[in-house]
Amino acid sequence: MTSSSTPGLARFNTLADDEATTALHEVCASTAWGRAILSRRPYTSAEALLLASDAATAALDARDLAEAMAAHPPIGRPKPQDPTSSREQRGMADATEELKAEMLELNLAYQERFGHVFLICATGATGEQMCDAVKARIGNSPEQERGIVRTELGKINRIRLTRLATEGE
Predict the structure, then answer these.
(1) Cα separation, 129 vs 157, whole angstroms
(2) Distance between CA 132 and CA 135 in Å, rounded?
(3) pTM tops 0.70
(4) How far apart are CA 148 and CA 150, in angstroms?
């Protein structure tokens, strides 16, 4: 992404606070994250917006992370009528029924172990890669997993913010 302003970023910078809050909630459901991003407007570049997102994601406490994760559907089960989750989870769309069933079981086991949805930046990943990731991560300690979840959430937020900042190009 270049350091110059984009049409989408210019539009975001000029949105009324309530409209910007709504747009940010589509990126990340954490209220604290949204407030942090909103408080730094206007952004001079898309890169500045992404760096602000990184800082806001790093600052989320356990409650804020839980709020953000609660808005993410399980892998293999995107929200109905939600083009964002369908686009991000495209790698599961062509998975075999066997792989989808395995992913459902793994999602449930993961959620039982950690108390939240398995979160991964699924954009560009195949169903097999996502399945392998949950298998690899289910043995992590809760502390290890919180760190990985924060990293994955940061990747997702960056992808979604990039889309927001480049809309209209």
Answers:
(1) 20
(2) 5
(3) yes
(4) 5
- 43-47: Cβ within 8 A, 24+ apart: 43/5, 43/9, 43/12, 43/13, 44/5, 45/2, 45/3, 45/4, 45/5, 45/9, 46/1, 46/2, 46/3, 46/5, 46/6, 46/9, 46/161, 46/162, 46/165, 46/166, 47/1, 47/2, 47/3
Which stretches of 54-142 are assigned E, i.e. beta strand? none
pLDDT digits (tens, 9 = 90+) for 106-148: 999 999 999 999 999 999 999 999 999 999 999 999 999 999 9
Give me the pLDDT at residue 37, please: 98
- Assess whether pLDDT exceeds 90 at residue 83: no
From the list 58, 37, 72, the residue with the least C-alpha distance to 165 is: 37
Token pair for residue 67?
């709020």
- The confidence score (pLDDT) of residue 4 equals 56
CA distance 25 to 134: 26
CA proximity to 127, closest of 167, 82, 80, 95: 95
- Whether the per-residue pLDDT at 57 is higher than 50: the answer is yes
Per-residue model confidence (pLDDT) at position 78 = 65
